[in-house]
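Annex B. Sample input.
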Amino acid sequence: MNTRGYVMRARADAVEETRRRILTAVWQLGLEAASMEIVLADVADRANVTVRTVLRHFGSKEGLFAATQDFVTAELLQERGVPAPGDIRAAVAAVFDEYEEVGDWVITMLGQENAVPDVRHMTDRGRAMHREWVTAVFGPRLPAEGSADEVLDLLVVATDVYTWKLLRRDRGLERDTAERRVAALVRAVLADADPGGVTWPASSP
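Annex B, continued. Sample output.
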């Protein structure tokens, strides 16, 4: 790569790094405030840029929030990963890792979704992401036809943030106990869907 190529690459990397700092700032401020009512000046200050720079990268506050939703969705999916199909222990641990970090914030956002359109768009994205992830993890074990959609619904419910809240916050269970109960739900759903198929070990997790 010639000198011009290195310079262009360095500039592109700098632009990407700035965008990431801004998007991370929005995400952090949203978590701290438990709200998406975020002031651009606060975003700029957190990202160590100017408001003008924020607008140059994203065009508007609406564009910034839309980009943040894409960014957060990609980050959460990367953190969850996709465990081996049917690996209940890894799947439950992955969603609990996420919920332990941001579950309370997600619950707060869900309480605001009917009043704030931006929040509703974000929570709708989150629901779609979760369903896609559940499909990727357990899809190979879903019935080929007939009740596949019903089984998927039940798996989504079993691993949903509200289920986590019920066990961890409302019941006050230790994490490992709550994980075992969610895993038991998942095993029961899968066993009922395919009674003559795989026997899911009671030790997971």
